[in-house]
Amino acid sequence: MITSLILTDMQIRFLALCLNLEPKWTRASGWMALQSQLVENPRQAKMSQSKRPMSPYMLGSYYKFQITSLLSILNRLTGIFLSLVTAPILLYWLVTLATGEQSFMAFSECLGGVLGKLVMAVSVFCFSFHLFCGIRHLIWDAGWMMEMPQVRMSGWLAVIASFVLTAIVLGAGL
To answer: Is the same domain home to 93 and 160?
Structure first.
């Protein structure tokens, strides 16, 4: 344990509150008393003896890859893409549609280029992935499919369904 740490009264009280310890010390003897109570806490003593990592963010040999964490990160990234890229494009599309045929045709030519088609394809995938992950979360909110094998299966189904829906939409030329 760290013995050279200097804590204020407020920090000692907060630490004691978090660890469910009785605040039986003064500021001068606070850290030493807290240290002795930590050793007496059997849960804390057991955790300090184990050799496992303390954080799931330690990548490498300590942390096993999980589809659920990848899908969570990808769901957030698709939501950001939909908010920052797709929504403004759709709003601009509506504005050009309302202003007249000439501005609409100019915007359609921009979307008809390679970059425009790529942005539209990514937008369709992001929308479909976000949609199926949202449905997956609604199913969880109902209390269904909460066991880990079912969670993994629903994750893979969301990915597969996203690619299928993207292929259907892009194949239809929408």
So the answer is: yes
Q: Both 28 and 90 in a single domain?
A: no
Q: Where are the alpha helices (DSSP H) in the chain?
A: 9-18, 30-40, 42-49, 67-81, 87-99, 101-112, 114-141, 148-172
Tokens 């993994």 correspond to what residue?
152
Asked if residue 62 belongs to a domain, the reply is no
What are 94-122's pLDDT values in tens digits?
A: 999 999 999 999 999 999 999 999 999 99
Residue 162 and residue 93 share a domain: yes
Q: Report how far apart, in Å, the C-alpha atoms of 27 and of each of 13, 30, 54, 92, 149 are.
A: 10, 5, 29, 62, 51
Cα radius of gyration rounded to whole Å, the chain: 27
pTM above 0.70, yes or no: no
